[in-house]
Amino acid sequence: MTLLNFEIFNMVVRCQSFQKAAEHLNLTPSAVSHAITKFETEIGLKLFVRHRSGVELTDAGYILLPYIRTVINDVAQLEQVVSRIKGLETGCVKVGMFNSVCVNWIPNIIKGYANAHPNIDIQIFQGGYEDVAAWIENATIDMGFVSLSSDYPFEIQPLYRDPLVCIVPKGFQCKSPGIVTIEDLKEQYLVHQSEGNDAETSNYLKCHDVSVSAPFQIEDDQSLLAIVESGLGICLVPELVIKNGNHNVDAYPISPEAYRVIGLAARDEKSLSPVARSFYDFVLQYMKAEGIYNV
Questions:
Q1: Per residue in 98-113, pLDDT tens?
Q2: With 60 as the cut, is the pLDDT of residue 176 above it?
Q3: How far apart (Å, rounded) are the C-alpha atoms in residues 278 and 113?
Q4: Total structural domains within the chain
Q5: What is the mean pLDDT of the chain?
Q6: What is the mean pLDDT of residues 29-46?
Q7: Taking every annotated instance into account, which residue ranges of this chain make up the domain HTH lysR-type (predicted)?
Q8: Most-buried pick from 14, 84, 141, 152 (CB within 10 A)?
Q9: Is residue 153 assigned to a domain?
Q10: What is the extent of the structural domain holding 18?
Q11: What is the CATH number of the domain that holds 229?
Q12: 82: number of CA atoms within 13 Å, CB side?
């Protein structure tokens, strides 16, 4: 087993294709296929199932994946330490996040960090809550922004308390001026995202016995707001979702109130690489300096 075997294996998993992995690694598809076959023979396990549309991991491959990624990350960490000793600072930080964090915070965070650390690359992985949690668990990313609305088996640093608000079309009349109640919600056509992207809203609706009446399967924030803007229903979202947006809707606080807590998570904060640790610390400093940190 060699580091190159591990890197080829990891790239094939990411691309789900020998052809695409070869392009990323500047190798021929036959070289990638040969390396995987040799790796499988060496360890005596089948790692991929090949089919016309690409490849997928076997059960054995899924079990080995986080260990292989840990080795790759450990070697990268070693290289970063060597660079530091030599007076250089290089490397890559992989960060996962959901949409509202990506839109509102990440551009300025990356800009500020890049000014201080111009030789460090930042790779962004965007998805829903469950995506980010899975990427942390299998070591695809170094760290990720998550909502504490679900239980996770890794360390989380709370950063931001984000209240839920009700988004309504222009001209909507609340029964109680300036606030949306549970009674309002039960009388309206209510839409929301899939639970994997909207755990805190789902929990709130279940807790107060409010059913979702609209037949929409929505995956992203902007589509949800567009549906409300068109007058097809109302929705509950964390307030951060509507900041820096341009949809023609109104937002009202809800009663009883609820919120999500956004945190920065790592599988093991203490074992972060030097560059990942520097980014982690920079995020905390940025949130406090900008007055965003509120927990």
A1: 999 999 999 999 999 9
A2: yes
A3: 9
A4: 2
A5: 89
A6: 91
A7: 1-58
A8: 141
A9: no
A10: 1-82
A11: 3.40.190.290
A12: 6
Contacts of 135 (CB under 8 A, 6+ apart): 96, 125, 127, 141, 144
Residue closest to 135 by CA, chosen among 143, 262, 56: 143
* Rg of the chain over all Cα atoms, to the nearest angstrom: 22
For 232-278, write each residue's pLDDT tens digit.
889 999 999 998 777 889 999 999 999 999 999 998 888 888 889 99
pLDDT range class, residue 86, cuts 50, 70, 90: low
- Residue written as token pair 């839109």: 103
Tell me the pLDDT band of 12, cut-offs 50, 70 and 90. very high
d(CA 38, CA 35): 5
Rounded to the nearest angstrom, the gap between the alpha carbon of residue 266 and the centroid of all alpha carbons in its chain is: 12
DSSP 64-108: HHHHHHHHHHHHHHHHHHHHHHTT---EEEEEEE-HHHHHHTHHH
CATH number of 54's domain: 1.10.10.10
217, burial (CB in 10 Å: exposed 0-12, middle 13-18, buried 19+): exposed
pLDDT at residue 145, as a whole number: 96
Contacts of 31 (CB under 8 A, 6+ apart): 22
